[in-house]
User: What shape does this take?
Amino acid sequence: MNALLALALLLTTTPQPPTNAPDTPAAKIERLVLDGKADEAVTDGRAAVAAHPDDVDLRLAFARALAAKARRVNRHVDVKLSKDDGAKGELTLKESDRRAAAVRVEYDPALFDEAIAQLEFAIKKAPQRVDLRVFQCFLLTDAGHIDRAKAAIESTFASIQRSPYLAKTFTSYGAERAKRGDAEDAAALLAPVAHAFPGDPAILIDYANVLTRIGRKTEAYAAFDRATELAPRDVKYAHTKAVGAMLLRDYDRARTSFDTAFRLGHDPADEFASHAAAYGIDPKASVAAMQKLATPGPSSNPQAAELASAFARAGKAGASSLVAMNLAKALLASQRFVLAIPVLDRAAKANPKNTEAAQMLKAVFLELGCERLAN
Assistant: This one.
């Protein structure tokens, strides 16, 4: 059995009294699942459910067994096969290709449907059981049935008292979809959680982040603003809100938000980002502030001073100048992707024929997992 699923099977279950005794049918099936004996667990579980059809714990254990047997995890690697690779009959992958490989989770359809049917039966018998509903939502999410997962989350909130456990669990499901590159799905899953917990700034920040990645600006701003209103002194939330504005290329909002983050946390990186956002508003008008940052001082950072000087030179030379393009390339080489956005954005707007700037900007958004923002 896949280790991730084994962990999920444990984490998506909350203690429910009474605890299964070691010799109960449900406990025996659970033990087989956690020992990696999914085939045996399914065979024994099917027979046990036939003999004890109203045993809710057994239905849950059998659903876990079916899911463990049905689940497969693959990694999709996007590489080209050369003639030499074809001749040798093998492909050597770079470590970077391995890290960039997309995770694909698949379930055997028949086993998956049977697992969901077991959970639906159990939920009808015990509608207040949190573990049944949480595992149902996990399976639907993991298998990519997002509309059904969203409906199951909404049903859970409508039927069971809301709790920090449910908030954390369902938020993690949305975060997992985002990690797999499914920001649209993540937003769909986080929407009912944010609606159910409108006073939780952490949930609102997570929701705003995925909304940002798919370009839903108005909703993202509303969630960011609500989160920072609830926690006005939280530096992390203020910084995240600023980064979101930079990703959406709203440089006025980004500058204001970075200023707030700097006022709260006194991090020079936020102060610098505020000036970078000002470059996005007007490169030439930002020169004086960047020159001030570049002025050596007792506590100044030499690298930050040099970078500020490079921004000032770019502002003087022009948004689409060779100096500005060299700055952008240096920012990409040092993986300062967020700071590169205003530089490349202004270069592309200043000279529509500067296709290199447009291509580099697209690469930045792809690197940041924001493909929808690249256009």
Summary: Residues 298 and 305 are 12 Å apart (CA to CA).
